[in-house]
Each structure stands twice: as C-alpha cells, then as structure tokens.
Amino acid sequence: MHRSRPHLSLLTLDSTLESVAGARRHTAQVLECWRARVELSDAARLVVSELATNAVRARCGPDGFTLSLVLHDGSLLVQVGDQDPRPPRPRPAGPEATGGRGLQLVGELSSRWGYYRTSPHGKVVWAELPAEERPHDSPGAAAGPTVVDAGLPCLPTAPPSAGSRR
Question: Strand 7-13 vs strand 147-150: parallel, antiparallel, or unpaired?
Fold first, then answer.
C-alpha cells in the first residue's frame, strides 16, 4: 500500500475580521497548490471561516490565532488555535437566528472534529475532512511533500484520538 507524504501549511494571523478572509484565501491557495479537489477546497474554506471567526471573537491575547492545514492519507486536518481556554460549544439556533450554526456546519462538513487544550493556556479546535489525493503519476502531481510555512506556529499536526469527538 502506497502512503503519501503529508502536505503542511502553518500560518499565524491577527485577531481581526480581515484575518478571517485572509485565512479563507490562504486555504484556497494552499489547496490549489496541493491540487486538491474543488469540493474539498470549498468545504475546507467554510470550516476555516467558521473556526477562524470563533477564534477572532475570542480575542484573548495579543498573538492572534494560528491556522494549520495538513493533507495526508486521504484526509485534510484543519486546526485553528487561539488563547481562549474555553471549549467550543455548539449553540442551538432558531430559524430566524443570524448566528449559532458555525459548529453545526463544521460537524456536517467534517468526518470528526473536536478540540484540545494547549499550554500554558488556550486551545486548538480541529476538524478532519475526507480528501482524495490525486495519484502521484497524474499530470502536474508534485514529487515529495509540499510545505507552506508562514511563521512557524507551534501546533501539533494530528488530532487527538477518535474518542475525543465533541
């Protein structure tokens, strides 16, 4: 069985609404570089948008938030870290509500999602999306891993075990 090498992108952004749009653009550009399916890019941009918006709303530190994308073995791992130690909590949203559906959307688009605390404080919210990588012999397939490094935030590159779904 052939196992592909991981593709990795790390980015640190300010806690501003403009940064949410920047995180979406970054995600789209990275996934295009990695030749990911359009459907994966669309779903990933929505998940990144929701998680980044939550991180910006937390605004619990001068360091902004981090975005990590890892494409490996048929899945895309999206991680957004912030300085707010409070866990993410899905909220019920009525039909007229203008908010409160973000984590529900993340749950629908991902195969699993959750969070883990970081030290000394803060958390990372992650979502895993199913992805089908193109075969290595397809036209334009890159040889070896593609690493996009934008500031080297310190984030793990794998979610917690499957039992930690929230």
Answer: parallel
Show the domain range for 84: 7-164
- For residues 39 and 28, the answer to whether their CB atoms sit within 8 Å is no
In this predicted model, what pLDDT tens digit does every residue of 88-104 receive, in sequence order?
988 777 777 666 788 98
Question: In this structure, what token pair is assigned to residue 39?
Answer: 């459907």
Which tokens in the block code for residue 95? Answer: 């039909």
Q: At CA 123, angle to CA 165 and CA 83, rounded to 5?
A: 155
Q: What pLDDT is stored for residue 5 in this prediction?
A: 81
Q: The whole model's pTM is what?
A: 0.76
- Rounded to 5 degrees, φ, ψ at 49 are -60, -45
The total number of structural domains in the chain stands at: 1
